[in-house]
Structures
1.
Amino acid sequence: MIVADQLNKHFKIYETKKGFIGSFTSLLSTKHHVVKAVNDISFNIGEGEFVGYIGPNGAGKSTTIKMLSGILHPTGGSIEVAGLSPQKRRKEVAKKIGIVFGQRTQLWWDLPLRDSFDILKEMYKVPDAKYHAFLKLYDDMLQIGQFMNTPVRKLSLGQRMRGDLAAAMIHDPDVLFLDEPTIGLDVNAKTSIRSFLKELNGKEKKTILLTTHDMDDIEQLCSRVIVINHGQIVLDGSITDLRHNIGLPSVIEVQYREKPQHLPAEFDGIEKMRWEDDKLILMYDRSVLSSPSLLQVVSKWGEPVDIQMKEPDIEEVIQKIY
Amino acid sequence: MVYWILIQKSFMTNLQYKVAHLINNAASAIFGFVFIAIWAGVLQGKEQSSPYDVMDMTYYIAASQCILWLSGFLTAGLNIQNGVRNGAISFELARPSNFFLYVTSQEAGRLVYNFFFRSVPIGLVFALTVGFYVPQHFSSYLFICISVLLAIIISINLHYLVGISACWTTEVAWAHFVNFTLLAGLGGQMVPIDFLPAPLSTLTQYLPFAGAIYYPVMVFLEKASNDVIWIQLFWALVLTLLNLWITERARQKLEIQGG
Amino acid sequence: MNLYLKLLSGSLRSRMQYKMNFLVSSLSYGLIMAVDFVLLAAILQRFNDVKGWNLYEVGLLYGISSVAITLYRVFGVEIHNFERYMVEGEFDSLLIRPVSPLSLLLTKNLDLSRIGGTAQGVIILVISIIGLSLDSFDMFLLLLYLPISIASGVVICFSLGLLTATFAFWTQRIKDFQTFTLYAPFNAANYPMNIYPGWLKIIFFTVIPVGFMNYTPILFLLDKGGSIWNLAWPPAVALGFLFLSLRFWHFGIRHYHSTGS
């Protein structure tokens, strides 16, 4: 469904001076260095796969997505999305893919959600019957019916993301690119978005490529993970491979009434332990040690006054690969 | 002195846009050329029936295009309306420093910048192409400085009035449009006000708009008696006092209603 | 077409949510233009003409030029404000649609507040045509040609706007160019071209061809010179210029595809 073959994207970074004249002189000057934002990436994503595409900021994730959707043209290598080259046949590819940018809505800001859908229906030339079926189906799945007539600017972030997701599906694309769809959402909204995506992938057999900073998204949704760093693939495998390779540590912060004097140097399931001021930070493997039993363990060491569960940071996970 | 620092800071901020402004200057000069061409076309063969000949009008337009950047193109509402919209004005009014001076000194810094990077280069372009008047009498220079300074004070006050009205109306775009139109139209930006039709030409002489553009230009061209400075001074004082009073009213309004 | 109507009605409705704002801004925009013209009238009342053009004749030029630029400001608002797409990186979201970015931009929004300026220009045209008191054949020809002249003006203005917008692919910001490429030339085109010095005339008949939209045809229609060919120039120049600006625009998009900046 999505094939990238020895994909490269190099940017020439000209030595820019600040301000307006800078943009002119840098236009003329030839002084530059080349940044390999995407460096020889190849992968093949089959129909119905749900792939997590992760890596630290600036690793080349969004450059890849932009190339897959035809916004950027690769410096080298080739891409096929749904059998077509997005570089050469951008408009046709656009009809076969749906894209959601979590940071930026693609809905019409001042209009009710329904109007955005009406406009997109015309844009993608969706027949009436299909359109009505779409509205019904997505109201069932995302409950967008309740705020269909509200202007987009008045929607909550979670509602807007549901609207954006439905908008991306209006032309029933086979492939879906999701760039940080859960960013900034609260727990409830995240849960409802995830269950929707699961259904989309499971029942509707959509191929989905997802970038995220949220390890829970990856764990709960993706059957396959591609990790990139510095423009190169560092891992391409199943979620078990990822866990096997680096573990998916969960993090907990414990604050004690009195700092315990004796801590065990090692404990089965706990990967790392360190003090940060008066807080004890523990990284543990949930598959070995469940959270409730860990809580029992830490409360044996002293009297906790505050315990906080933290999600592991993707940057930290990537660091561990090296 | 806090106001002096504000003037400096605002000057430095504007310095960053220098080059973009230089391109804009070229456009501003073209506007001037167009006005000059119109006057040259209008006065051709009719100079006897006009108090000003083509050269006078060339000098007039050149000077008014320069002074426009000091007393015409000011920030809409001096940005006071933004503070009203986001509520920051309550804090600003409560500061120990004087709000009126706080706002106006920031604009003054921008105008100092405009003088060096807008008025002077535009004036140079005119000097090199169509000519720029050089005042003949040594004493004129003193009066020119006073007149321009008063023009700036008048214009800043007019723009302040527009901005502070946001405390009651929230939207100032309309007021700014009207203010600017009056300033350019009745202030003599393109047409010296003595050319306006009968009742208007007398009336406008006593309005503050003439004090912002027409009088300083005429003083610069040594075509007006230096007494017009009294008219300018009158408006500068009246408008300043008016604004100080309105600022006090705004403060009371915000204290009672909490913004 | 259906899509275009949907988009336009959408943009209309989103504007109408701020009714008061809309009314006030369109009124004041019209007012500025009115004052400008009244001042011109004041000068010409006193001095009769500017290089052989009386008030009504200049009014004809003035009306065409103002209607052209304000219609561009109404329909081309997103082109005019194109730097936003570069500065805020929103251009990407146009490239993921199965429609060309230019059609998306043209249908995204309407700036109806500028229609006040258009109305102002039309009023000036009406006053001038009545004031000219032409004989019926000349009048007929003028009325027949006026829409062509205005359309050519809109196309020239749009092309200039698009050319300027394309610069944003390299320079990001374009607002300061617009004074140079749009405001100043269209202000100049309010008046007869024969008043300008040679170098300005050259500019207005070549790189920024605003002289063609009104001066060239009106010269012939008012019997001030030129031949019947003067009537062919405006649409020809407009289309040629449109073609050039579209080429440049596509060149800009290709640049964006490779740099994404």
2.
Amino acid sequence: MVEAGTSEKGDMRVIIEEGPREIVVKSKLERIYGEAIRRTVEEVTAGLEAKITVEDLGALDWVIRARLEAALRKFRGEGE
Amino acid sequence: MKLRRTRLYIPGNNPHLVENAGLYGADCVILDLEDSVPLGQKFDARILVKYSLRNVDFGRSEKWVRINSLDTPFWEKDLREVLEFVDVVNVPKIESAEDMNRLDAVMREIEKEKGIEERKVVPIIETLRGLTNAREIAKHPRVVALAWGGEDLTAELGIPKKKALILEHVRAEIVIAAKSQGKMALDTVYSNIRDEEGLFEYARRARYMGFDGVGVLHPNQIEIVHRAFRPDEDEIEDARKIVEAAERAMREGKGVIALNGRMIDKPVLERAKKILAFAEVE
Amino acid sequence: MPINAVGREVPTEINGQRFKPFAGDGKTPPEGRRAGSLIRMAPEGRSKVVNSLEEVIRKVGLEDGMTISFHHHLRNGDFVVNMVMETIRKMGIKDIRVFPTALFPVHEPLVPMLSDGTIRRIEGSMNGPLGEATSYGAMRETAVLRSHSGRVRAVESGEVHIDVAFIAAPTADPYGNLNGVDGPSACGPLAYAMVDAYHADHTVAITDHLVPYPAHPISIFQHQIDYVVPVDKIGDPRGIMSGTLRITTSPSRLKIARYAVEVIERVALRDGFSFQAGAGGISLAVTKFLGDLMRKKGIRASFINGGVTKYVVEMLHEGLVDVVFDGQAFDLDAVKSLKEDRNHIETPLAMYGNPYSSGGIVNMLDVGVLGATEVDIDFNVNVNTHSDGLLLHGIGGHQEVAAGSALTIVTVPLYRYRVPVIRERVTTVTTPGEVVDVVVTEHGIAINPKRDDIIEAMRGSKVPVYDIQDLQKKAERICGKPQEPKTTDDIVAAILWRDGTVIDVVYKVKK
């Protein structure tokens, strides 16, 4: 399991775990940006066979992309 | 003329602070990957900073990133991630020309690979060794300014930073080293963010010491520093006369600039231009 | 359904009552005579004290279907609404119309009463859980939201007839003189309850500080109060007062405040000017910076209308302002000043901004600085619903301050945690763009194009001036396009303009 991001307002926490592909989106803005968040997660993680959980605290799209990229690269073994 | 009166430090792993960093009119914004980013967040931070540089409107602020120092395993990775998108790389604990060369080599490699222009560097002098070599460091063509920090230096001397008398001397050394190479000199931050009068006095002193700017920790400090760096009315008046005399001499094709029967030397003209530049903004 | 003057489709009948569509501020003249209350006489003896709520409810003859009212000065510390409603529920009285000046999260116990038959509808501001429950369709009838002054108008015109007013009284004597400045639950003025005391058929004061006759000072006088019920506690001081209100420390919010003050300086600042103060983070900062500027320039204001806080009180005591009009006090400094300073005046709400009166305080305001949840490219303002369609806030005095002030400034961030505040179309119109002059964000300001004078005054300023469309586009560029709220065609609430016309409706939100 790897993590990226924080639980601060305006940020997103991304968790990637071994397992069949599954995307879980938790967001306070589900009713306003739920679809947009899902689209970005699908796009950035396309083809990844793993469970991806995102906890959104009102992150802008570029923040979501940054956190997803960080988590993905960690999941693929890159270190600090 | 490029102004660097204020450089606003923004913790590199905080999206909310990063996304608003361009709003406050700082001359430079420093997205920090060093001290404000704890171990364990270095990886996330450099990616976040990369994305922010590509997506956030930093307005008229010059885009800086403070990378981790050359004695850490992070600095090269920092550069590879963000160099393409920055104007200036701010590098802590530079001690020698060799340090500059090491940095330069990696930057050159990345710049070649990405096909981008040469990026500028502002090294931070933080040690006795760095201070000894300050002129050599300032000489490097990438360097546009010297900055400094007193924490390590006072630790080396075994004295508390708050009471250290030597820091005024260090300030002078930094200014002389930078200016002798035709580079800017930048003073460090004033950390009591609630003390507005103290900050104004501090920035005024920095200016009269010969610095071109100070670091700021909070957006509220920016306007105060800019005010402190604004020349007085009589300074402006004198400068205007000198620049007008220079323009007149130019028009009339004279090689010598004279004002009230006195010859104006080049540094005096340069100072006048600089004063007018400082006066013009805001 | 007809389309009103802000382009919203609105019903002409709500809960069986006829309403006109919003036609523009001041475009719907009043009709008829003011409504009265039941003529009654004092009970025998020298005391009106009744020892239980149940007994007093019997005495006033509360029946199924009647309308009861409350005021909200105990704010989120109020015990009285829950206490009275629980007694009514236990007594088996049904179909009550609750007519508060405002309800808060502390009133969540009313939510189950929406479905058990106790309450048929609420007409009043609902901040928090009750608003949310209403959005999901929990209320049997349609909620009606009015501004503070719109509520006064509704009572005075007979649009709403109050059968029983239950008045939380921080101090009362046995013969019904009341004030809000003393006692353990002191809240300051009782401005909001005055109209209810005058117009309700029956009036009950509920107090936890019964003092010997006569209580003084007096905010509500004995001849309007039928009964006094002493209880253990009417509220929790921690929820009544806001504690020490702090000016926002957020640099972007401070920037908004600075921009707003520069607009005020260029457009309205002169000796004898007046302004509306508030207690939000940005409002406090505006008040503070404005005070600093006045001190620096040697300018004195004629009055501040509040929303009184210690910052306003300091200005009064420093001589920066001659008079403070007080409709609500936010901290203990404000309460103390109201009690001790004769230039700090408790103003009945009927004097605030009712358009159908001979003129309110808002008509004399030079500057009103207001907040919003959303603003659109027509300068329409929403303070009631969130961008997902949920009803979560009341109107407060937004409408009358906007309509009355010579310079109306709305201060908002461009977006809040990804949700754009400046939008193409507000989710709900609370206040029409025709009474909004300047929108101030941390990125710059937008001036209503019909205010040439302000556009002219801002020339040469460092404050960036944008077309509101550009601010909207900027917000959308940063945040992405938001989804439309998922709502049904069922109307759960009507938003009335202060003159009683329907400015918008709130639709039921899908779970």
